[in-house]
Specification:
This protein is α+β, with helices and mostly antiparallel strands and about 100 residues long. The protein is built from two helices and seven strands; from the N terminus they run ββαβββββα. It has one domain. It has a three-stranded antiparallel beta sheet, covered by helices on one side. Strands 1-2 form a two-stranded antiparallel ribbon. Strands 3-6 form a two-stranded antiparallel sheet.
Length: about 100
């Protein structure tokens, strides 16, 4: 018997025989952190704000611009750690010094 096998998952549609690469690290991590930039009243500061985050235990840098909700990307780790964070002009200037344009 033959037929069509089709899976719909989130934003993707997969037909039989297709593959997708998945980063499983977020599912194997015990800790995660995402920073939401807000004012004193809890109102989002908005999108496109430069940020730089350094996770010393991971020895990994994360940088970019906040999303439409004023959030950074989510960072996953197997252990709790303090992150070094720069936002706005400080992050932008720091990244430019490193030769990174965002």
């Amino acid at each position: 018997m033959t037929g069509l096998f089709k899976v719909h998952a989130g934003q993707h549609s997969f037909n039989y025989g297709q593959k997708v690469n998945v980063n499983l690290s977020k599912y194997l991590s015990d800790y995660s952190q995402q920073i939401h930039l807000t004012d004193q009243d809890g109102k989002s500061l908005g999108k496109n704000i430069p940020y730089y985050i350094f996770a010393p235990m991971l020895n990994q840098e994360f940088y970019g611009r906040t999303d439409d909700e004023g959030k950074t990307e989510r960072i996953y780790s197997k252990q709790s750690e303090q992150l070094e964070i720069k936002i706005g002009k400080e992050a932008h200037d720091y990244l430019l010094e490193k030769g990174i344009e965002i």
